[in-house]
């Protein structure tokens, strides 16, 4: 039997239906957590039970429900937190722990490559993670929906560009893994979303702005 290429866990934690993700290298047993917003003991216990060592953290954006557990996490494990530089003004985390990204980088968790995609719109520094055919999309893209763009720091036009010119160009077989459990299913193929998600499929900026009530 071929060993798995990726350790992957999707954990629904906290009162806001957040998905926290664990990704890791089965060969080195190194792992990273994505969006440690809630229930840090559960995150650490899951990794320990599965025999993984936490070496990195990623945040898809600065909103509290995705990052508020990071300080507690850092007390337990001194690991770098990879965040996009455009969200720095909103992140209440030790500057020494932050690794600021600009988008387009490849970060390795053990030997597993994680590609960072800058997808502004929900927040200035929103970023998605592409790893082993899975898109961890934070609050940029949901199943049959997209992130809000009427919050402080949001930008509807930037969100349209992120969806139309970054995410829509990814392979149809990419598995969409959103930041919240807002749909009847927890994941979906990106090709299905291109066909059925009106936000991802908006043909023009004006169509998208009308759809989100911004135009």
List keywords for this structure.
Metallo-beta-lactamase, Chain A; alpha/beta; 215 residues; 6 helices; 29% strand
The number of domains: 1
Rg over C-alpha atoms, rounded to the nearest angstrom = 16 Å
The general outline is globular
CATH class: Alpha Beta
How much helix, percentage-wise, in residues? 10-25%
Helix/strand class: alpha/beta
| Number of beta strands | 14
N- and C-termini, Cα separation: 54 Å
Percent of residues in β-strands = 25-35%
Strand order of the largest sheet: 1-2-3-4-5-6
Q: What about the largest sheet? A: 6 strands, mixed
By DSSP (H or I, 4+ residues per run), the number of helices equals 6
Mean pLDDT: 97
Q: What is the helix/strand order?
A: EEEHEHHEEEEEEEEHEEHH
> CATH topology, which one?
Metallo-beta-lactamase, Chain A
- Determine the CATH superfamily: Ribonuclease Z/Hydroxyacylglutathione hydrolase-like
Architecture (CATH level 2) name:
4-Layer Sandwich
Low-confidence stretches: none
């Amino acid at each position: 039997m071929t060993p798995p290429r990726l350790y992957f866990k999707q954990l629904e934690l906290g009162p806001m239906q957040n998905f926290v993700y664990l990704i890791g290298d089965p060969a080195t047993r190194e792992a990273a957590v994505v969006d440690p917003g809630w229930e840090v003991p559960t995150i650490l216990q899951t990794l320990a039970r599965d025999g993984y060592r936490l070496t990195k953290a990623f945040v898809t954006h600065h909103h509290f429900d995705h990052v508020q557990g990071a300080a507690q996490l850092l007390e337990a494990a001194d690991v770098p937190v990879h965040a996009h530089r455009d969200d720095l003004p909103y992140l209440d985390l030790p500057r020494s722990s932050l690794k600021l990204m600009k988008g387009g980088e490849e970060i390795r968790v053990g030997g597993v490559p994680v590609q960072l995609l800058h997808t502004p719109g929900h927040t200035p520094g929103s970023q998605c993670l592409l790893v082993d055919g899975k898109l961890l999309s934070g609050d940029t893209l949901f199943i049959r929906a997209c992130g809000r763009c009427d919050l402080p720091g949001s930008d509807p036009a930037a969100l349209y560009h992120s969806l139309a010119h970054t995410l829509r160009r990814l392979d149809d077989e990419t598995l969409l893994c959103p930041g919240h459990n807002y749909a009847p299913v927890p994941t979906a193929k990106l090709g299905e979303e291109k066909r059925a998600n009106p936000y991802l499929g908006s043909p023009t900026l004006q169509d998208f702005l009308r759809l989100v009530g911004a135009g």
